[in-house]
Amino acid sequence: MSDTMKASDLFVRCLEEEGITHIFGVPGEENADFMMSLEGSSIQFILTRHEQGAAFMAEVYGRLTGNPAGCLGTLGPGATNLITGVADANMDRAPMLVLTGQGATARQHKESHQIMDVVGMYEPVTKWAYSVNHADAIPEIIRKAVRLARTEKPGAVLVELPEDIAKHETDRTPMQPRRFRRPGPDDKITDRAFDMIRNAKRPLILAGNGAIRKRASSQLRTLCETTGIGVMSTFMGKGAVDMDADYCLYTIGLGQRDVVSLAIDDADLIITLGYDMVEYHPKLWNPGGKKDIIHIDFLPAEIDRNYHPKCELIGDVAHSLWMLNERIWRHRDELSFDLEPQRKIRARMKEELEAHCDDDTEGSIRPQKALWDVRQALGKDDILLSGVGAHKMWIARHYQCHEPNTCLIPNGFCSMGMPLPGAIAADMVHPDRRIFAIAGDGDFMMNVQEMETASRMKSNITVMVWEDGGYGLISWKQENEFNRHTNLSFTNPDWMKLADSFGWQGQYVPNSRDLRAALDKALEHEGPSLVVIPIDYRENALLTERLGQIDVTI
């Protein structure tokens, strides 16, 4: 007779075989067997104070490593608490395993305590959602789940383990993972793409979320060093090229036309690289679909009248770029581009980024100055995490990067609440780097309970809160459309007492001249630090006015 084991033990062994090292979450009664099995494994379980925080931690872990982590909740409210962070990860292409408990199969067919259709609820926000209905199926289910989570484009996968199935005996063993290189496009279509580039005079690259993989970024930089073609990134493509490179045209993605929009207007060919339509809709940069487009991505282009590529290179993005680079190098003497307008646009935007570097205000701090000082305080490989709110718009426009995956912004699902839990995970992945998160006061309070998790984990993180006492982005948008806004104000805690109660270092910094020293003090502190600044959001309306007056000529 062959050896048998409990299903929950097999489940954990399968996760170990897949290389899963971390699970974040809040357990419950229905996954007690799984937790007992997990206790003796090599997988580290991080207890969080809310399931949403667990999901955001797993999301950031996946975005930084390319490998999924687990986020765990029990049935019913545990599963519903997870779902916002799961949806955020899935739309931002982060590999993730969602692990939930469930009531016994003998009571799922009827009204029963906390029973709900978790799989049905998760199907719209995951790549795959499945409930284990037999212990012997666990190895295949876990192999499929991890493979789907990792496969481009990555995302979230749910596996539900009912409490009675977890106790069953099985003689199955884990499946060994087998991973293969993704294919690239064929030569004929690559030749066609190269011909379009060779015949262009003012080509431009729009780098999206898929361009920040290390290999893709390396090949992109090689292409740009050879050709000089300018690159602008979406919010999630930051760092695909170095902010200091002459061909870096910074970031696009605001709802309004910006300085860098002029480069798109001038371009006769747009090369999109790892671009997701959810990042910045093409109707905002290509109304009417008039631009010639080469689409380079892992998947074919979404069908949209404003985004209708003439050529698509489908497959591994890095390999597609390598194939183009081979052709560009062989025929580089045949390339003749007029890229001077792009250089002028870069210079104009660079002036905007530097305009407030010497601000000396009292009582509140301009967003531009805050981000200038943060950029100066952080190194090239340090990581900044942004929440969602008015601060996100300023970070997207004014915080530029040297390396991929050094600025993490929620941009597909756009959920608030990510910076604090995300920073905890980032510190676990990169303890050798400085981790800095920026949140609005509304964003920060949505997962404020994870301050305890950071303190317990001794996380070396700094969180900066921009305090304006209201939902600033909503008021900004209402003002733009209606010339007024509804009541969006709220009160805040005593930030320094809050920091002290959780064992954090705390600083309140009302004056611009004191900010850089406060940032250095926080970053040098061992353990979590909180820096709060009163933010001058009068700059929101001023930016809107200035962008509305952008010259239509370069």
Automatic annotation (TrEMBL):
<dbReference type="GO" id="GO:0005948">
    <property type="term" value="C:acetolactate synthase complex"/>
</dbReference>
<dbReference type="InterPro" id="IPR012000">
    <property type="entry name" value="Thiamin_PyroP_enz_cen_dom"/>
</dbReference>
<dbReference type="Pfam" id="PF00205">
    <property type="entry name" value="TPP_enzyme_M"/>
</dbReference>
<dbReference type="InterPro" id="IPR029035">
    <property type="entry name" value="DHS-like_NAD/FAD-binding_dom"/>
</dbReference>
<feature type="domain" description="Thiamine pyrophosphate enzyme N-terminal TPP-binding">
    <location>
        <begin position="5"/>
        <end position="120"/>
    </location>
</feature>
<protein>
    <submittedName>
        <fullName>Acetolactate synthase large subunit</fullName>
        <ecNumber>2.2.1.6</ecNumber>
    </submittedName>
</protein>
<dbReference type="Pfam" id="PF02775">
    <property type="entry name" value="TPP_enzyme_C"/>
</dbReference>
<keyword id="KW-0808">Transferase</keyword>
<dbReference type="Pfam" id="PF02776">
    <property type="entry name" value="TPP_enzyme_N"/>
</dbReference>
<dbReference type="GO" id="GO:0050660">
    <property type="term" value="F:flavin adenine dinucleotide binding"/>
</dbReference>
<dbReference type="GO" id="GO:0003984">
    <property type="term" value="F:acetolactate synthase activity"/>
</dbReference>
<keyword id="KW-0786">Thiamine pyrophosphate</keyword>
<dbReference type="GO" id="GO:0009097">
    <property type="term" value="P:isoleucine biosynthetic process"/>
</dbReference>
<feature type="domain" description="Thiamine pyrophosphate enzyme central">
    <location>
        <begin position="191"/>
        <end position="324"/>
    </location>
</feature>
<dbReference type="InterPro" id="IPR011766">
    <property type="entry name" value="TPP_enzyme_TPP-bd"/>
</dbReference>
<dbReference type="InterPro" id="IPR045229">
    <property type="entry name" value="TPP_enz"/>
</dbReference>
<dbReference type="GO" id="GO:0009099">
    <property type="term" value="P:L-valine biosynthetic process"/>
</dbReference>
<feature type="domain" description="Thiamine pyrophosphate enzyme TPP-binding">
    <location>
        <begin position="387"/>
        <end position="533"/>
    </location>
</feature>
<dbReference type="GO" id="GO:0000287">
    <property type="term" value="F:magnesium ion binding"/>
</dbReference>
<comment type="similarity">
    <text>Belongs to the TPP enzyme family.</text>
</comment>
<dbReference type="InterPro" id="IPR012001">
    <property type="entry name" value="Thiamin_PyroP_enz_TPP-bd_dom"/>
</dbReference>
<dbReference type="GO" id="GO:0030976">
    <property type="term" value="F:thiamine pyrophosphate binding"/>
</dbReference>
<dbReference type="InterPro" id="IPR029061">
    <property type="entry name" value="THDP-binding"/>
</dbReference>
